[in-house]
Queue: 3 jobs
Job 1
Amino acid sequence: MNKFEQLGLNESLLLAIKDLGFENPSEVQEKAIPVLLEQNTDLVALAQTGTGKTAAFGFPLIQKIDAENKNTQALILSPTRELCLQITNEIKLYSKYIKGLHTVAVYGGASITEQAREVKRGAQIIVATPGRMQDMINRGLVNIKNIDFCILDEADEMLNMGFYEDICSILSDTPDEKNTWLFSATMPAEVARIAKQFMSNPEEITVGHKNSGSATVSHEYYVVNARDRYEALKRLADANPDIFSVVFCRTKRDTQAVAEKLIEDGYNAAALHGDLSQAQRDGVMKSFRGRQIQMLVATDVAARGIDVDNVTHVVNYQLPDEIETYNHRSGRTGRAGKLGTSIVIVTKSELRKIHSIERIIQQKFEEKTIPSGIEICEIQLLHLANKIHDTEVDHEIDNYLPAIYEVFQDLSKEELIKRMVSVEFNRFLNYYKKKRDIASEKSERSSEPREIRAGDPVRYFINIGARDDFDWMQLKDFIKETLDLGRDDVFKVDVKEGFSFFNTDGEHTEKVMSILNGYDMNGRRINVEISKNDGGGRRDHNGRNSGFGRREGGFRGERSGSAPRREGGRDGGFRSDRGSAPRREGGRDAGFRGERSSSSSRREGASRRIESAGDSSRPRRPRRS
Ligand code: ADP
Ligand code: MG
């Protein structure tokens, strides 16, 4: 009797499991499946990403569904469209030997009438994002009044995305007698609140501290100057020619900007974030799964839970605001027993975050240095040689060979090899010959913007004031709430007519700049700048402010000259110097976070709508992470 059989699963599931190639249940499956099969109970299960939660609820659910009854019996809520589709797919695979069992995905951005029609045809299981589900309920297109099971998958992320009210409202539309199974990686207060409000005596399962990836993911960090972030990313990609990676940025704007730069520099990259149309996102995911894309630059929400095998590297281009999120990111690699690497590009001022993450993941990071140009050239050269060596020869080429032999007849084998590999190699060599090595310049230089440290007050200018109906208390509350800061974290708020000033501790500066700057306040775009005047803060820092206000922040200065084209990039060859003209910066103090100061991302002016992946039409409160 195999392990799955011992858990009590029936023949049709066992057959499907065999097809899937699962040999042994994962820990969360081992714990959850028997409980869910044997009891009619509520359940709270805490387990990291990649631990096999879908099957942990999917198997028992399928076994308990009455496939002969066409009514909707189960609702699975999940945070994003991608996850919704992924779960639907999995459930379909699990239930492929069960006649008459239908699972329908319900998510924003696709035709609601078509989804309603599918539901109407008979869907025992509906997998939905909360926003779209709420729409369907409001329009009377679904009936979940008689369901037996409701599953909240990635509950923490759903709440994080601002779906609390939708979830409450949806759950209120379901019968009290149903069973609710809540799956989550973490248990923040909001999740506990949902559990308390909507569940009775839930069984509780916690799967160790262990991320299934943790044994197979190694963690590395690279310290760079803020303005070298992009160059570091490029070098890491160049030093890993077979990289197949998810690159995480903090905001949609950064995600778009980094992806655009990579594409411009000839990498096989694409962006995945909530501002793309559904068709674009589908296209991106398809290309990524098909490996036409080597670097998928994504926001946390868009990439949450995405299950693509064989991702070699997760790159934290910027660290997430919430440390917990790091787990979700690194869980994109090291899946299904494969080895993976999670890389963090950090500035010195962010180093303490690495230590906090170490405590949470209970694993050590290895500090590494960005490879030098020479090292990269060497890696690329060997890679190319191996590639030539292993290339499969199509004998079609035989017809052309005589003419080609003739061209090469005066060259020795050694000469020929040298020239062949030089074709590709020259590009890298020429590029890196001109570059300084970023790793060896860790020390601060005079051109470096003032380092902002925890413990130092930072004063900001913000373009809203009394004219926008703020007094100092209201502005303080608005900033606190938007940034999810504590009671005393915003101080020295000084409201003028059309603008204001306020202070925070330097530890919050990145958050202020990444969330508040560009924030869309009812159609008004908020602009925040670090003020040269520290407002007579807790200490005097005038001497150190001089670094601010330099115009050419960011890595753009680095991008002049010819970036090496990647093999398989668009058109080999040398690039023109189009990056070399210094562009004007959009804001006065753009020097601080180099990677955000690109004029294109400022110009783009994408309003900082709240990210809500599959349900972008609905307003949400700002995400915290
Ligand atoms: P989670 O929801 O916990 O993040 P998933 O349910 O998405 O995890 O599963 C992660 C991956 O592991 C998927 O590719 C899934 O097919 C695979 N998987 C799940 N259970 C098993 C198992 N028992 N044996 C092998 N692979 C499994
Ligand atoms: Mg999952």
Note: The longest helix spans residues 413-433.
Job 2
Amino acid sequence: MAVRALRLEPDEILRKKSKPIEVVDDKIKELIEDMLDTMYEANGVGLAAVQIGVLKRVLVMDDMEDGSEPIVLINPEVTHTERMQRGTEGCLSIPNLRGIVRRPYITHVKALNENGEAVELVLEGFLSVVFHHELDHLDGILYTDKAIKTYHPDEDEDEDHQEEK
Ligand code: GNR
Ligand code: NI
């Protein structure tokens, strides 16, 4: 288990384009394990390698529904999208901010899995949102670039549990 340090805005690495992975070797598998450890430790639902300082095209996701398994995607490509949705996003690299972003509601993806095997999957709803958020990280794009609006949740969000002031 290795939790790695998260890169935070305005670290300029977050603006760089990640490079395709040529061989899924043991070093990549270790990177993926560290990404999952780091994501779970931070209570995130997704993570791109650049967020721990590695400019490689790999992302992990886990929507934390009951019985959910992590999804690992290497060199992901969008093959098709359908319909749009808008929803609230946050980013582990941009603490204390939220934003409303439009994303495809359904996304067909082609990628390699953690064993280097070609996979195709169809992501819907929140997983489609998280996927596009992570794919953008691989291209140096942050959700704040696309947000219709951003806000500080402590000020504006109707939280279930808010600190008494
Ligand atoms: O943990 C995260 N939650 C989240 C919520 C809505 C839309 C996207 C995300 S991804 C984010 C983790 C992260 O920053 N991944 O890059
Ligand atoms: Ni993010």
Note: Residues 48 and 59 are 4 Å apart (CA to CA).
Job 3
Amino acid sequence: MSFTPAPWPRKLRSQEWFGGTSKDAIYHRSWMKNQGLPADLFDGRPVVGICNTWSELTPCNAHLRDLAERVKFGIYEAGGLPVEFPVFSPSESTLRPTAMMYRNLCAMDVEEAVRGKCIDGVVLLAGCDKTTPALLMGAASVDLPAIVVSGGPMLNGHFRGEKVGSGTHLWRFSEAVRAGEMTEAEFVEAEASMSRSPGSCNTMGTASTMASMAEALGMALSGNAAIPAVDSRRRVMAHLTGRRIVDMVKDDLKPSDIMTREAFENAIRTNAAIGGSTNAVIHLLAMAGRVGLDLTLDDWDRCGRDVPTIVNLLPSGQHLMEEFFHAGGLPVVIKRLGEAGLLHKDALTVSGGTLWDEVRDVRNWNEEVILPVERALAKSGGIAVLKGNLAPLGAVLKPSAATPALMKHRGRAVVFEDIDDYKARINDEDLDIDESCVMVLKNCGPRGYPGMAEVGNMGLPPKILRKGITDMVRISDARMSGTAYGTVVLHTSPEAARGGPLAVVRSGDMIELDVEARRLHLDISDEELAARLADWTPRMEAPASGYASLYHDRVMGPETGADFDFLVGCRGSAVGKESH
Ligand code: FES
């Protein structure tokens, strides 16, 4: 893509607040000066916001105040004025009912803060799963120069001689407890060993995936995704990002210049190559909506289909982000895509150059971590998009995390009406289920849960786990943690709480899954399905007030990114009125 930098010097947006001798200008400057800022910092230089999702209640982002200081070094050094501000920080590990319910709230906060404040550009400091997409969504809707710096992954976990990854080993240990192979005391002992340092989950979970998506989109400096949170080079990345944003402001290099269709196709292919989280599907669709691109589930299927998964990281593979970093990180993967003809090489990045320029000279330092294509974890690693009478608007499955033998399967449905029903019955030794059955979980979509919880990889019944069986076909309208695995059909749409076909599946119905044919079929007649749907009534009442009510009424389906309908699109940076 060719990009022509704006002329410099020129009058910047921040001068609408700080320029001149009007009452308003003095008001704006005077109050800022109570922080001890010298007068010449308001002389027309770039004023750069640092949008920080730091919070002690978002443990994955708890070190971001330190990184913000490093960003400030870079901004000052390049001749800008840094101003840090907080936004709502949705934490995957501590927020109820789901962090996803608050992704859009965070994105609204970011959008309104960036637009309403006296800044010319913004550095987006994110780490935990929802914070990266939320910040990019908000920034895209304003379209001022913006750049991501990630918090970076935690160091590797270790437990009794075994390397353990965030989330993934939690699911494994939890199943081992339920199968009687691990005591509860051992389970508790494992918890501290999984989280040894600041940072985000160290598997290729959603946080690592979204950091990789930001880099593949061109919205972060090359190499940003994999540097461990506590590695000194993470601070260097923050410092360099601070320097770079000042030049981006001068050039007027905006998200709309970078987040193009080609950039999203690069990101989709990158997601397949890294074995990334299914959550990336929803987040990228929502981000594309913010820049006015008509990205669809079909684009996900089309672009990802021929891309092998070559990153050998948990949950699909064996290693963790620390090894990925030492192997060369995401630039090596992007280079491989380019060499295979699977990359839009001239996609623009925050560097002002092309994505290919960033990666063409990198090397792979560990072929056990970034595999040769002949040893790919999955030949077709892209997210499979399934359609059929059970998912008219689509559903997704991650082939690299699934069991090959189950990718074509016909089985008897065992239905759980909601997550409480599942929890109440799953441990019942009399539950009528065997390993050939298809577990169906309803009412866990955006409206149903609410927020579309990560419960789609529902644990198997203990009596099946005791047989040594670790995977069954599972179908729901929920999401799945990026750290999870299994033959799990997710995001089934329309969701049960909106009266989609999933709502009328009954225990005993036969269900057919055929991933190769991209088919998800409920084996009942069209007439029977129509009659059941006509009889359907909602199980839950809509919340009467508060954010939950707004969320229920305005959230869209996962096939368009589960954004709010009124937030789609870019509304620009114009504010209009003065504050006084
Ligand atoms: Fe925050 Fe995994 S829970 S990154």
Note: The two ends are 42 Å apart (CA to CA).
